[in-house]
Amino acid sequence: MSNVLVQISDAVLNPPPEGKYSNLKKCILERYCESETKKTQKLLAEVDLGDKRPTQLLNELSVLAKDNVTREFLKTLWLQRLPAQIRAILMASDADLNELVKLADKIMKVGEFKHVAAVATSQVSQVSNIDKRIECLEQQMNRLCMKDNNYWRRSRSSSAKRQSSSRHQKAFT
Fold first, then answer.
1. What does residue 95 show for φ and ψ, rounded to 5 degrees?
2. Which are the contacts of 85, defined by CB distance < 8 A and separation ≥ 6?
3. Neighbours of 81 (CB within 10 A)
4. For each of the chain's 173 residues, which pLDDT tens digit applies?
5. Are residues 44 and 55 in the same domain?
């Protein structure tokens, strides 16, 4: 709560003579609500089905879209985010969106449909690059371990020779 007050302190400490509450509301909305651009980005690319029901997905898309897109465009966005098997079944129907949503929920309930996300080529490239770097690090670690082992073997060998020669010298004295 105090973090919010810090963010809007100017509106609380220096309110205008008129419209104090509307000014405070405006200040809170400006600082905490997502911009229309961000909402549009989420609508077009970030919102997916995940573990939600199709109804929940449509509701989330509808909130982001508000009245900025047509119902047909919203239907297209929603269908794109459903598993391919369900999309194929729904596209064969000429029912309106409200009926399609109910049908999609029923299909999801009785079937074992998994939504598989595609991996972009750039992501595959990044993973491949990371794999190569890990492999290189493993090789470097192996070389260091081998050097370390050789050092300890040589060190022990020299120490053993010194001790052996010291025993021989004591035996002769």
1. -70, 160
2. 111, 113
3. 18
4. 567 667 777 777 778 888 888 888 888 877 777 777 777 777 777 888 888 899 999 999 888 888 888 889 989 999 999 998 999 999 888 889 999 999 999 998 887 665 455 555 656 667 777 877 888 778 888 888 777 777 767 766 666 666 665 655 555 55
5. yes
**CA dist., res. 94 & res. 104, Å (int):** 14
Angle, in degrees to the nearest 10, between helices 54-65 and 71-80: 130
User: Which ranges in 66-120 belong to alpha helices (H)?
Assistant: 71-80, 84-91, 97-110
Beta strands in the chain (DSSP E): none
**By C-alpha distance, which of 30, 31, 10 is closest to 20?**
10
10 and 66 co-located in one domain: no
pTM over 0.90: no
Tell me how far apart the alpha carbons of residues 65 and 62 are, in angstroms, rounded to a whole number: 5
In terms of domains, do 112 and 125 share one?
A: no
Verify that 95 and 124 share a domain, yes or no. no
